[in-house]
Amino acid sequence: MRGVAYVDGVYLPLRAARVSVQDRGFQLGDSAYEVWAVRGGRLFDPAEHMTRLTRSLMELRIAAPMSETALFAVMRETARRNHVRDGIVYVQISRGAASRDHAFPVGVRPTLVITAKNLDRDAIAARAENGIKIVPLPEARWARRDIKSVNLLPNLLARQQAKQAGAFEAWFVDSAGYVTEGTASTAWIVAADGALRTRPLSNDLLHGVTRAAILRLARQRQMQIAERAFTVAEAQGAREAFISSASNAAVPVVAIDGVPVGEGRPGPVAAALRAAYLGA
Q1: What is the per-residue pLDDT across 113-134, written as a single tens digit (0 to 9) for each?
Q2: 163 an active-site residue?
Q3: pLDDT of 280 higher than 60
Q4: What is the pTM of this model?
Q5: Which of 117, 133, 148, 163 is catalytic?
Q6: What are the E-state strand segments in the chain?
């Protein structure tokens, strides 16, 4: 296990990095996290991700372990020590270590863990070029998906089910039949009427940073936009579909539950938005 991790003030070889067995993030999922994309050695959307991390901590009532300026400095140093040029920086902050109890402990310092790694650029490029497949699955998560917490077991089970079905991602579908989001991505379609559609923000889904950036780019290009939920059938009948996340910007979806989307190959809208976002 190569690499360097930052844990509560110390840079350590990843194989030697540890947190307490009584850490509430480990025992109770009492923890928030954030992921920054790194491209060309530069953090993408740095302020927006920090704002979302701060919001998650406030919603969970977890104190920030240091100032934003200091956290950025540690993140960049962690990326530097791991020689990350195109990858991610992962930040996790738990309430801290304390005797196990559901009630919040008093006088406990938050635990801060930061790691960084390069991603497979060839695999990411291949997904963008060839498109991905999606499987729809019933929504099985808690009601506060707007908080980026480490409680991801339903996401893991859904992603594994997608993998076993030969798909890259799963889309959760609510009790009314509308797509909420992917296990680790925002869901988009270019509807039959040409409108770019994605579900509006609420507690039902994560407030995607890349989602906001893509909407901003679409508005700059005077595209028709509708922040409105869509069904699986609407997605299957759409001109295009795609996903977005920090590590997968506007990756086209070519099939949903075995049904081809559009012509069954990546479309021009996803390609244009991806190029604009990446500055290509």
Answers
A1: 999 999 999 999 999 999 999 9
A2: no
A3: no
A4: 0.95
A5: 148
A6: 4-7, 10-13, 31-39, 42-43, 87-94, 111-118, 132-138, 169-173, 179-182, 186-190, 196-197, 225-226, 240-244, 251-256, 259-260
